[in-house]
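step: validate -> pass
step: tokenize input -> pass
step: predict -> running
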Amino acid sequence: MTKFSPHFGRPIKGKISLLLPHLTLLTALIAKIRPEQSWRELYEASLLELDRSKLPERVRTAREAIHRRLVQEKETLSWEEHKEINDALRALVRRGA
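step: predict -> pass
step: emit ->
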């Protein structure tokens, strides 16, 4: 089956198979990223935010990310991560007040 490039209209026969190893590697790398990193990054961004007009949104976004982490992975949370999340939530409450 011949696939066509949507941009150029020319066949790209066989080119997709060249990308598969790279896509497989990329998928594996993404799967290894720990899900709690995103809540940590958003939490840190809220702590570093100096613009008072942006702060409520940063705090809300961080709290939502923490909530998603708790809902999605609560069985696999380590004691250390539970403590980090509790500390982060306390800091966000103080930061958002």
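step: describe -> The helical segments are 15-32, 36-48, 55-73, 79-96.
step: cleanup -> pass
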